[in-house]
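Async update (no meeting this week)

Hi team, since we skipped the sync, here's where things stand on the single-chain job. The sequence we agreed to prioritize is pasted below, unchanged from the tracker. I ran it this morning and attached the output directly underneath so nobody has to dig for it. Comments welcome in thread, and please keep replies under the output.
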Amino acid sequence: MKKILSFTIILLWVGFEVSNAQNQKIGYVDTDVIMQNIPEYSGVEQRLDLLSENWQQEIREMEAEIAQLQEDFEARELLFTDEVREERLQEINAKTDELDQLIESRFGPEGEYFSRQKELLEPIQRRIFEALNSVAERENFDYVFDRAKDSRILFVRQQWNLTDKVMLELGLEPMEN
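Output:
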């Protein structure tokens, strides 16, 4: 909701600015399209997918181990003394906590997956940003928006699409329109 509100405020601000200065130039790019056309990006995606799959397999194995411990406990619970019952429950809880910590350390907001993703994608994103700045400066654009999947632009005139020019600046083959 905050994103939509922020984007709406930006659009209103831009609208007021444009009405105050009719000679301002606004363009847009689609960074998703550009990223998909950068050869290194598919390698980054594959590396992240492999990393994620390995970690997910590790998580599935721990989940199976916890399920087996739980099943064994339930099958023999009546045979256990209070002390052994408490020990086994603590063991199950400790494994569950260990699993939660593993998931958090791998896929949480500060986890390894997002750190690796940032580390691998940052150079590509920096190249795109530098190419975009070159195109925008050269062609005197005042504002350039990203039309990637999260944006809420409802209408754009194709003549202001800078995606192909940014791709050319990066040495990539432009899209077929």
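Quick observations from my side:
The chain has a mean pLDDT of 86.
Residues 39-76 form the longest helix (38 residues).
Reply here if anything looks off.
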